[in-house]
Amino acid sequence: MEEYLAMASRGEDVQSNINSSITGTIAYWNDAEPHNQGQYWYFWLKPSGKFSSHSEPRICLVVDENNPSIEMLKTAAESKSNQEFELNVFIIPRQRDYLQFVVSKDDEVKQIRSGTSTLKESDQNETELSPIIQQTETVPIYIHPVEKWNLLVKWTGDASEDDFKELFNPLGAESVVMLKSEVEIDERQAQINFKTQVDAQNALDQTDGFVIRGS
């Protein structure tokens, strides 16, 4: 994972024949309905966070409607909640256009070559499913929601977003979101997001009672 994160931060391509873990949000592959062809539903995993500059911004998941995760994916796509998911998959060759994976009802996965033998957005509704059935190689894939942990900071005064980043980023914060208080006009709030509960608890312990510039 550390190796892949470093590679993604440099904007390099995902390497062939290694396990990659990519975090992103779920949307339907096309905005227009239908979002499925027969029993297969088409989703777009959009790399986010540290992966937002990833060189493969178009990852297509073709999922059997009988897969146990189908309702979770459909709910995420329909609600547009930006719930993040983590995709762990073994990438075979790098593709010229986009990465595409077909996920069976039993979570068996075939990576399908992008290009002439795969679906394109422009001709999705006219393309038969036969190219998807072509044998490539079955590889393990896991996709699951990413847990988020956050601290809610309330204060009055002149503390800024940069002040909170300077304080919490060294403690493992992934992002700082400034919020508007609906309770008191003078009160301000910020949400500090962490990857794990341990990081959030550690940051809370180390900053309890901390004062930032007259806040």
From TrEMBL:
SUPFAM superfamilies: RNA-binding domain, RBD (SSF54928)
CDD domains (alphabetical): RRM_SF
GO molecular function: RNA binding
RRM domain span: 158-214
UniProt cross-references to InterPro entries, sorted A to Z: Nucleotide-bd_a/b_plait_sf, RBD_domain_sf, RRM_dom
Superkingdom: Eukaryota
Pfam family, one: RRM_1
Name this polypeptide is given: RRM domain-containing protein
Organism: Streblomastix strix
